[in-house]
Specification:
Blueprint: E1 7-16, E2 20-23, H1 24-28, H2 35-42, E3 46-49, H3 55-70, E4 79-83, H4 94-102, E5 108-112, H5 118-131, E6 138-145, H6 155-158, E7 163-173, E8 179-187, E9 195-196, H7 208-212, E10 219-220, H8 222-243, E11 253-256, H9 261-271, H10 282-285, H11 292-302, E12 311-318, E13 322-329
Parallel strand pairs: 4-5, 4-6, 11-12
Antiparallel strand pairs: 1-7, 2-3, 6-7, 8-13, 9-10, 12-13
Helix pairs in contact: 3-4, 8-9
Bound molecules: oxa(dethia)-CoA.
Length: 332
């Protein structure tokens, strides 16, 4: 049977952050670093740490918050797209594990990995699942247990990352002027070597050597990535504004990937936006990779700061490189 094609919209949001905290003093106690350096260079003050369990254990409470706010059960979900670089295990997919844990017995699903851009990539794919008429209720989850792949002996990276999860529900919407309006996503594979995790995949399976050489952790040439991330995020934001004829007045919120406050500020400046219009929580959670954008959306909605009709621009930049933007007219 032909189904009518409709715009997709986010109709609920949820998030979860584990209660344990590593503040900057924690790193001062054993590394050659300082609270002042971390704050000034990154904007981060503390990050959350999942002490027990895997990524799915954060995704489940985020989803439950999302479904409760919408007033629907897990059985109504048709598809679960999980954006993550830290799946519980290589297979089954974290989506499969979550499907069982929440009792979404009518849902299929899959994991999608595009480093820090995973959530925006997943949001784009899920939007097409709704617009095509294939589905009417799709969950998009961004969740990462970054502490599982962070080298706590490497001061260049360990201060940056934290754990967390966010979830959004996508449904069709009648009003064509609202919802998920535009995406412009990019990949630039020439720079993959500057941010990667060398071992654990098929190229370098786990061995005594890979463990001894500390190759199961994030490795980053921070300065080089920084130099690409600043123009990359700003270009993505400008593209969203140009393609959708947006002036700064049309944008209520910029939702940037939370990797570094200096990258976020530079993006806002290029867009002509004051920082009051930028969602920032990096000081509390650090970089939660796939979870940064949905945690922002859920926290701001919770505070009553997202209203129907608001123009929202999402931008991201991560390993690959993967980067890009999305434009939403908030629908509920
Ligand atoms: O999310 C995915 C995409 N990732 C990003 O967007 C991250 C992009 N990069 C960054 O955010 C920044 O490059 C960092 C925060 C990672 C580093 O900041 P930076 O201002 O670029 O510092 P740097 O790497 O140029 O290092 C400056 C100095 C170095 O010392 P020397 O060589 O000048 O003596 C580092 O060894 O700071 C040193 N350093 C530290 N010092 C104290 C590096 N990490 C630390 C630390 N504490 N934790």
């Amino acid at each position: 049977m032909m189904k009518s094609l409709k715009r997709a919209a986010i109709t609920s949001v949820g998030h979860y952050l584990p209660p344990d905290i590593y503040d900057n003093k924690f790193f001062e106690s054993y590394l050659d670093t300082s609270d002042q350096w971390i704050r000034e260079r990154t904007g981060i003050q503390e990050r959350r740490v999942l002490k027990q369990g895997g990524t799915s254990d954060m995704a489940v409470p985020a989803i439950e918050m999302c479904l409760n706010r919408r007033g629907i059960t897990a059985e109504e979900i048709e598809c679960i797209v999980v954006a993550t670089v830290t799946p519980d295990m290589l297979f089954p997919s974290t989506s499969s594990l979550i499907q069982g844990k929440i009792g979404a017995k009518n849902a299929w699903g899959f994991d999608l990995e595009a480093a820090c851009s995973s959530f925006l990539y997943a949001l784009n794919v899920a939007t097409r699942l709704i617009e095509s008429g294939a589905h009417t209720k799709v969950l998009v989850v961004g969740a990462d247990k970054m502490t599982a792949i962070t080298d706590y002996q490497d001061r260049n990276t360990c201060v940056l990352f934290g754990d967390g999860a966010g979830a959004v529900l996508l449904e069709p919407i009648e009003d064509e002027s609202l919802g998920l309006i535009d995406f412009d996503l990019k990949t630039d594979s020439t720079c993959g070597k500057f941010l990667y995790m060398p071992a654990g995949g098929s190229l370098l399976p786990p061995s005594i050597e890979t463990v001894t050489n500390r190759q199961h952790y994030v490795i980053q040439d921070g300065k080089t990535v920084f130099k690409s991330a600043v123009p990359g995020m700003a270009d993505a934001a400008e593209s969203m504004m140009r393609r959708n004829n947006l002036s700064p007045d049309d944008i209520r919120w910029l939702v940037p990937h939370q990797a570094n406050l200096r990258i976020i500020s530079a993006t806002a400046e290029r867009m002509g936006l004051p920082m009051e219009k930028v969602m920032v929580n990096i000081h509390k959670y650090g970089n939660t990779t796939s979870a940064t954008l949905p945690i922002c959306l859920s926290e701001w909605w919770e505070q009553g700061l997202l209203d129907k009709g608001d123009g929202v621009v999402l931008v991201t930049f991560g390993a690959g490189y993967t980067y890009g933007g999305g434009y939403i007219k908030w629908a509920y």
